[in-house]
Amino acid sequence: MNDPILIFKICLVIVLFVVSLLIAAYSTYAERKVAGFMQDRLGPNRAGPFGLLQPLADGVKMFMKEDIIPDTSNRFLFIAGPAITMITALMTSAVIPWAPGITINDMHVPVQVADINIGILYVLGVVSLGVYGIMIGGWASNNKYSLLGAVRASSQMISYELAMGMSIIAIVMSSGSLSIGDIVAGQSGWGGMHWNVFVQPLGFLIFIICAFAECNRTPFDLPESETELVGGYHTEYSSMKLGFYLFAEYVNMFISSAMISCLYFGGYNFPGMEAVQGNVHEIVFALICFGVLFAKILFFIFFFMWIRWTIPRFRFDQLLNLGWKVLFPLAILNVLITGAVIIFL
Question: Is it the case that residue 1 has pLDDT exceeding 60?
Fold first, then answer.
C-alpha cells in the first residue's frame, strides 16, 4: 500500500472514531429531547443554546466523579469489562462502506477502513465478543444484581444472534457475497432503489427486532431493568467505566443503524444517483453518498428512540420465547423461501 492510500485510511479511522463518539454523545441528548417531545415537556435546555452542551456537561461529570472499585471485586476483570465492550463497539465500523470508492494515485480505493470479502462474518464475530465485556463486568463486580443482569444480557444476545444470523444468510444468498461493500453495490439497480428491504421484507423485520435485542434497547432492556436489578450488569460501576458501558450502547445503536441501512436500504445508494454521478466531481459525489447514508442512519437512530418511549418492556420469559419460538423459526422459513425463489424463479 502506497503512502497516500495509507494516509487516507488513517484519516478515515480517525474520522470514524471521532464521529462514533460524537454520535454516542449526542444520542444521549437526542434521546432526552425525543422523550421530552413525546411526553410533552422540554428535555435538556439549560447547558448552552437549546441544551446543546448537555452531552459535554455529562462527559465532564463522568470524568470528575469518584472512580470506585469494590473491595470484593476482581480488580483486573472489573476494569477489563467496560474496556472490552467499548473496543468491540468501535471495531465494528471498520467494514462499513460509507461511500463509493474514490481514485487515489490511479487506484480505486473503497471508502471503508477494511474492504474484506467476509465483512458480514467480521461484524457478527466482533458483536459476539461484546457479550464477554458485559459478562466479565457483571461477574467481576461480585454483586448478585450485576451477575443476574450479565446472565440476562448474555442469554438474550446469544438467543437473538441466531435469528439475526439466519436473516443475514438470506441476504448473502440473494446477493451472492459476504462483503458488505458488494451487498451495497448490488442495490444500485432500479435507479438506485433496488433495496433489499423490497426483496427481503421478512428478513428486515427479523433483523431490526434482533438489533433492538442486541443493543439492549427497550423493549428488550431486561439486563438493565432498574425495577428488578437496580442497574443490571453495571450496578457497581461509576465514573468513566460506567460511561464506557453507556457509550458502547449508543455506539452499538449507531452501528446497528448503519448495518440496517447498508443491508436493507441501499447504503449510500439513492434515487437518481447515476444522473448525479455524471455531473459532479468524484469526491463531491462520494460526499453526497456519505450524506445520504448518514441521513438513513440518523433516521434509524430516531426509530430506536421512538420505540423506547412507545412500547413497554417485555418479561424475560416473553423475550426468550419471542427469540426461540417465533423469530428463529421465521428466520429459517425466510432462508427456505429465499432458496426456493433463487432455484425456481
Answer: no
Per the CB < 8 A criterion, the answer to whether 160 and 216 are in contact is no
Residue 103, beta-bridge partner list? 108
Instruction: Please tell me the pTM assigned to this model.
Output: 0.89
What contacts 24+ positions apart, CB below 8 Å, involve 330-333? 330/163, 330/202, 330/206, 331/162, 331/163, 331/164, 331/166, 331/167, 331/170, 331/203, 331/206, 332/166, 333/202
Cα gap 244→82, rounded to integer Å: 6
The candidate with the shortest Cα–Cα distance to 217, out of 299, 304, 279, 96, is 304
Q: Say what the pLDDT of residue 44 is.
A: 85
Name the helix (H) or strand (E) containing 311: none
Output the CA torsion 339→118→277→301 (10° steps). 90
The residue extents of the domains of the chain are 65-344
Tell me the residue length of the chain. Answer: 345
Closest among 24, 69, 93 to 241, alpha carbons compared? 69
49 vs 32: CA distance, rounded Å: 15
Instruction: Using pLDDT thresholds of 50, 70 and 90, give the confidence band for residue 343.
Output: confident
Residue 115 has pLDDT above 70, yes or no: yes
- Chain centre to alpha carbon of residue 110: 21
- Give the Å distances, CA to CA, from 294 to 31, 71, 229, 270: 18, 44, 36, 12
For 176, the grid coordinates are: 451472492
